[in-house]
Design goal:
Elements lengths: L11 H32 L7 H17 L7 H18 L3 H54 L5 H26 L3 H26 L1
Helix pairs in contact: 2-3, 2-4, 3-4, 4-5, 4-6, 5-6
Length: about 210
């Protein structure tokens, strides 16, 4: 009868633990390498966008900020334009790494400028909307006043008042048209003239009624 005796090394358990530790360490090193190596390659310009790619990206971000209504008065937009100019100069000097970093900063500044421009644009739109509604109400009141004043008057008496109303409609109409075209800046620009025209017409109509 054969007897099978299982023979195991006394240190087998320790050997397995050491083997598993080595696998864990190797996996950790591999994970770090997968994370760090591409970043290092990008940092040194061996992988990913070039300096010119970054500069073009910053240029597009700046153009978008301007399309949103941003101007050189915005500190972020001004900083973005200065940084992208610096990036171009660095790229021209062959300083690829520095140029990419400066272009990336320019893009970040331009994105901030986009946000600021959108906030300002929204503020202008809301102000234009308030002006439009207020002037619309004033014109309606003025038309009612005109209808109250003119009945019973001769054509010669109403002619100056009619001309006054036409001129007032032209002044306010320019503001209304600008609002309908969503040219909110033009609404703000034309507000003073329109209000002065409405106020002057109202005074004239009230005086003629006395």
């Amino acid at each position: 009868m054969d007897e099978r005796v299982e023979r195991r090394r006394p240190d087998r358990q320790q050997f397995v633990l050491r083997f598993l530790r080595r696998i864990a360490v190797a996996a950790l090193v591999l994970a770090v390498a997968v994370w760090a190596v591409p970043r290092a390659l990008v940092e040194f310009g061996l992988l990913g966008p070039t300096a010119h790619d970054r500069i073009d990206e910053a240029g597009r971000a700046i153009a978008t900020a301007r399309a949103y209504g941003g101007t050189g008065e915005l500190p972020a937009l001004k900083a973005a334009e200065e940084r992208v100019a610096n990036a171009r100069a660095l790229a021209g000097q062959g300083k690829e790494r520095e140029a990419r970093r400066e272009a990336a900063r320019a893009t970040a500044e331009a994105i901030e400028a986009q946000k600021m421009a959108l906030v300002a644009r929204t503020d202008v739109r809301l102000r234009a909307e308030a002006i439009y509604k207020d002037l619309e109400g004033q014109i309606n009141d003025l038309e009612k006043l005109y209808e109250q004043v003119t009945p019973g008057r001769t054509k010669e008496q109403t002619a100056p008042l009619l001309s006054l109303m036409k001129a007032t409609r032209v002044s306010t109409g320019a503001v209304f048209l600008a609002y309908e075209k969503e040219d909110f800046a033009a609404v703000l620009d034309g507000e003073r003239r329109a209000r002065e025209a409405v106020e002057s017409a109202a005074k004239t109509l009230k005086a003629s009624a006395e």
